[in-house]
Amino acid sequence: MKKRILSMLLALTMTVSMAVGCSSNSGSDKSSTDDKKTESTKEETKSVFTKSPTGKTNSGVVTYNVDMTQYEDGKKVRVWLPVAQDTDYQTIKDVTYDVNGAEGKITEDALGNKMLYIEWDKDTAAADRTATCSFHVDREEILRPELKEEGEPGSDLDEYLEASSTIPVDGVVKETADEITKGKDTYLDKARAIYDWIIANMNRDESVKGCGQGDVCALLDTKGGKCTDINSVFVGLCRASGIPAREMFGVRINDTDITKNQHCWAEFYLPGFGWIAADPADVLKAVLKNSWDKESAEAKEIQEYYWGSNDEKRVELSEGRDITLEPAQDGDKLNNFGYPYAEVDGTAVDFYTPDTFVYTISFAQDAQ
Known about the structure:
Layout: H1 2-14, H2 39-44, E1 54-67, E2 77-83, E3 90-98, E4 103-108, E5 114-120, E6 130-142, H3 171-180, H4 187-201, E7 203-204, H5 216-222, E8 224-225, H6 227-240, E9 245-252, E10 262-270, E11 274-278, H7 280-289, H8 297-305, E12 314-319, E13 341-344, E14 347-348, E15 358-365
Parallel strand pairs: 7-8
Antiparallel strand pairs: 1-6, 1-15, 2-5, 2-13, 3-6, 4-5, 9-10, 9-12, 10-11, 13-14
Helix pairs in contact: 3-6, 4-6, 4-7, 6-7
C-alpha cells in the first residue's frame, strides 16, 4: 500500500552524545517553559513569510480512541493527546471530545502546542476510562516556490539556532556542517548541500523503533534511522551552519487506520522569504521501499520534490523538543509530542506498546 501511494505521488505530483567529538555541554537547551517562546515570538517569525504555492488538498476527520480500562481500580490515570491547529498549510475545525465523565480540557504548552488533557482520578471505575477526540483537517500540498533570499535572519529566530538534548550544534555536528557547506556562501546553498549530503550518506533503517529518537551525534556515526532521526540531522546541521531550522511532528492522513503513521519533517528559514519545507527522510523511505538506486531518475525526481515541497497527506500536530506538557507531566520532558502520552500513578507508559497504552488513530476522508 505505502509503495503504491509513493508511486502515485510521483506520477501525479512530479509531472506538475554518543559519538566521539560531541562536546559535554551540547545537550543544553531552553526549557519549554522559557518565557521567550511566546505566541508573539511565533508571530514575529512569520513577519516576512511568503506562502508557497499550493496544489492538491486532502480533507477529513482525525479521531483518537483511548482505552485505559486495563489498569485496576484505584489508579490515577492521565492522558495527553496532541491536537492539531491552524498553520499556513492546514485548517483545523470542529475539535470535539468525550471523556466519559472524567476531567477533560484543551490546553496549550509554552511552545504553543495544543492538546487534550484527560484525568481519571483514583475514584473512577476502571471500566469508565475511555475517551475520544476528533478534529477536521483541510491540508494543502506545498509546492516549491522560486527560492530567493535577501538579508539575514532576525533575532526572533534565535531559538531555531539553539541546541536541544538530542540536537547539539557544536562538536562533531559543527565540524560536519562546516565540511559539508565549505565553499557555500548563501543560506540556500548551504541548506541544499546539507539536504543532498544526508540523502547521499544516510539510509532508512526499518529496525528503529517508532520514528526514532533523533540523537544527532549517534546518527552521524551510524547514518541510519527513521524520519525523526534523519530530519533531526538536517535540523542540527542547518543550525550548526547558522540556518534557522525546525521539525514538525504529525501523522500521515493516507489511510483509514493511521495509528502507526506518525511522521516528522523539517523546515529551514530563508531570509527574505520564510520557512521552506525539506523532508530528506521521505526521500530515503521511498528509495528503500521502491528498491531504487539513489542515482536513479526516480530517486532524483522525488529528491527534487521534497526540496521545498510537501505532500498533502500529513497533518502537523506539534513542534519542538524537550517538551513539558500542560499541565506538566510527572515524568521526564518529552523528546517530542508526536504520539499520545499517558501516565499511571505518575509513571509514564510506553506509547509504542499496545497492551500498556491502548489507543487508535483513524482518518475518515471527506467524500470527493
